[in-house]
Write a structure and sequence with these properties.
By secondary structure, the chain is mostly helical. It has two domains: 147 residues, no CATH class; 173 residues, no CATH class. It is 78% helix and 0% strand. It has 15 helices and no strands. Helix 2 runs antiparallel to helix 4 and helix 4 crosses helix 6. It starts with a helix and ends in a 12-residue tail after the last helix.
């Protein structure tokens, strides 16, 4: 009998240890889940990119066009802080305590620096690891003011030097393959990139962060822009009868993610936007050869704050400065306006009308709560 009790003890101890670990993670608010890391952290990272690299790029463009060097200087400062901005945004999403959050400034800078062209993905992965380890040790000692930042920064910078170059290179290579494939097969890839990035934009995932991580520019960037605009403008137009001008602006200049709750109830309301992206994507790549040569993050922003179109314009300016383009033509503007605004509005409206006529979309299905 004694022998049998001894055999059971390790199991009981093991169960107790697991229970203690779960309690510890809960107390530290460490939630290892796809939603926390793939949705919350990635979405926050995109906001960090917007508040640094994107704003910096816009200011740089304005400074160059208006002849105001002060704007260029401010823009340069903002762009250089993209790594820290992303890391702090990720830490905020992971609900880091102040000492951990502030320590992520160094982690973001180092991971973005070592990650090179694929820096955003390196920042995402390494900032998450450093943040969670920092949260684990936070307030566990009497010298927290030393231990927490030391551990967070040491782990983050160590990982940056060890794995950030590989992560960055891998992301960059994947992006290069997508861009190469789009140049080789603009019709097929125009459809695939446009549809996939457009879907990701509407899902609670950050298309901007993905495009930034992959460095998606050129024809592929243009196709990504087309897909994003198809979803944002598409949902704004087809839901106008339910949501009016407020819904038009909140979706067309905000985000089509607002429709996610309605999509769960009736996935068929997504058909007009997806069909539109499948049409405008190859039109962008094959007919207009529209390229996004601004910051890669703009490829995944669509008409949100007009960041996508501004990114295309920034790319034109950069190409002219580099001698790759002589001037901005009327055809350039027509292509941009058609791909970003007019075609998404017209095609989605017609497709949405058909879906309503056959009963796939019913009155109220697109109403925003």
């Amino acid at each position: 009998m004694t022998f049998l009790i001894d055999i059971g003890s390790p199991i009981e101890k093991g169960s107790t240890n697991v229970s203690k670990l779960k309690d510890f993670l809960k107390r530290k608010d460490i939630e290892i889940s796809a939603r926390r890391y793939g949705v919350d952290a990635m979405s926050a990272m995109a906001q960090g990119l917007f508040c640094s690299l994107l704003i910096g790029t816009i200011l740089n463009t304005l400074g160059t066009q208006l002849g105001l060097p002060i704007l260029n200087e401010i823009g340069d400062f903002a762009a250089r802080m993209s790594g820290p901005a992303m890391a702090v945004a990720i830490g905020f999403a992971l609900k880091c305590p102040p000492m951990v959050l502030f320590s992520l400034v160094t982690v973001g800078y180092s991971s973005n620096y070592y990650g090179g062209a694929g820096g955003p993905l390196a920042v995402l992965i390494i900032a998450i690891i450093a943040a969670e380890i920092g949260k684990a040790v936070s307030k566990e000692t009497k010298i927290d003011i030393l231990v927490t930042p030391l551990v967070t920064i040491f782990i983050g910078v160590l990982l940056s030097s060890l794995i950030a170059p590989a992560i960055g290179k891998a992301a960059n290579e994947v992006g290069k393959v997508i861009m190469w494939a789009t140049n080789q097969q603009p019709f097929i890839m125009g459809i695939l990139v446009s549809v996939i990035v457009g879907i990701v934009l509407t899902l609670p995932i950050s298309s901007a962060a993905i495009c930034a991580s992959l460095g998606l520019v050129g024809l592929a960037g243009g196709a990504a822009l087309a897909g994003c605009c198809a979803n944002m403008v598409g949902f704004a137009v087809i839901s106008f009868r339910e949501n009016g001008w407020g819904g038009l602006l909140s979706q067309g200049l905000g985000t089509s993610m607002l429709q996610m709750g309605n999509i769960v109830k009736n996935p068929k309301i997504w058909i007009p936007a997806i069909v539109t992206s499948a049409i405008t994507g190859p039109i962008s790549t094959c007919l207009f050869r529209l390229q996004m040569n601004g910051p890669a993050v703009a490829s995944g922003m669509g008409t949100c704050g007009l960041v996508g179109p501004i990114g295309v314009y920034t790319g034109w300016i950069n190409d002219i400065a580099a001698g790759l383009k002589t001037s901005i033509t009327a055809t350039d503007w027509i292509a941009l306006v058609l791909i970003a605004f007019i075609l998404p509005a017209v095609i989605s409206w017609v497709t949405g009308l058909i879906c309503r006529r056959i009963g796939w979309i019913k009155e109220g299905d697109l109403k925003l709560q």
